Amino acid sequence: MRITRGVLIPTLLAGGIFAQIPTAKQQAPEDLTGTWVSVVTEGWRYRMITPPKGDYGVGTWPVPLNAEGIRATNEWEPAKDEATGEACKAYGGGGIMRIPGRVRITWQDENTLKVEFDAGTQTRLFHFGGTPPANIQPSLQGYSAASWEMPAGGRGAPAGGGGGGTGFEIAGTPRPVNGAQNQRAGTLKVVTTHLKPGYLRKNGVPYSASATVTEYLNRTNESNGESWLFDTTIVEDTVYLQGPFITSENFKHQADNAGWAPSACEAR
């Protein structure tokens, strides 16, 4: 028996039965951490300024509102939001990525990405391998379940790079050029639920507590040293939308935390 155990235990150890399961941080196919600045390349009139009341983009960057969504949009009153302490409704999980500003991404722990915004001084947490706790209450940022999605053929090259920038930039093209450096190493998928009602745009275009927000985030690295983060966002909401609302937000990596300036939410 002693001989059998002496052979068996090393074999089990060598086979990895007792090996620790890698954390989300260890499995990360690309590094999303650092400070990123918004680069506004599309939807300028809906992101850089607050659109007029009732403007949900008919014919130009439209939100696919149903009749109830149109009714709710036309009833928007920013003074009411300010009076009721709801000035942050445009800064919730369904709309915060479209608010121009800076985003700072760090690992809170081995399985949780922390995403901070200087616009509205908001924080989102991306939970890997988790499910919403029992009896979780809706909140402005909701509960975000995250997972890594790997492309066919492996992880790809490691990410890196840096760049500068001011509070936001307006560019003529939303995507960097194709090249060997910016092949996708992997995609971060984030599904957010348990949201409080909020706004897709600052002029009261609504999403409800039933909304689901699905995001796909990718980093690319350019031959000129720039690194970019792309967030494709899909909002689905049967209460106010007649179809998915799909947008793409672009961010450029900064070499440091310069320009980080947390600010309060603005209802107007």
Structure explained in plain terms:
There is one protein chain. With about 270 residues, the chain is an alpha+beta fold. The protein has one domain (about 35-255). It contains five helices and twelve strands. It has helices at about 1-15, 25, 45, 65-75, 80-85, and strands at about 35-40, 100-110, 110-115, 120-130, 145-150, 170, 185-195, 200, 205, 210-220, 225-235, 245-255. A nine-stranded mixed β-barrel has the order 1-2-3-4-5-7-10-11-12. A two-stranded antiparallel ribbon has the order 8-9. Strand 11 and strand 12 (about 245-255) form a beta hairpin.
Topology:
Layout: H1 2-14, H2 24-27, E1 34-40, H3 44-47, H4 67-74, H5 78-83, E2 102-109, E3 112-117, E4 122-128, E5 143-149, E6 169-170, E7 187-193, E8 198-201, E9 205-207, E10 212-221, E11 227-236, E12 245-253
Parallel strand pairs: 1-6, 4-5
Antiparallel strand pairs: 1-2, 1-12, 2-3, 3-4, 5-7, 7-10, 8-9, 10-11, 11-12
From the spread of the alpha carbons, the general shape counts as globular
The N- to C-terminal Cα distance equals 77 Å
Largest sheet data:
9 strands, mixed, barrel
Q: How many H/I helical runs?
A: 5
- In terms of structural class, how would the helical and strand content be classed? alpha+beta
Query: What is the typical, i.e. mean, pLDDT?
Result: 86
The SSE string, one letter per element, is HHEHHHEEEEEEEEEEE
- Strand tally: 12
When the domains are counted, the total is 1
Strand fraction: 25-35%
The strand order across the widest sheet is 1-2-3-4-5-7-10-11-12
Percent helix:
10-25%
Report Rg. Answer: 21 Å
Low-confidence stretches: 3-15, 155-183
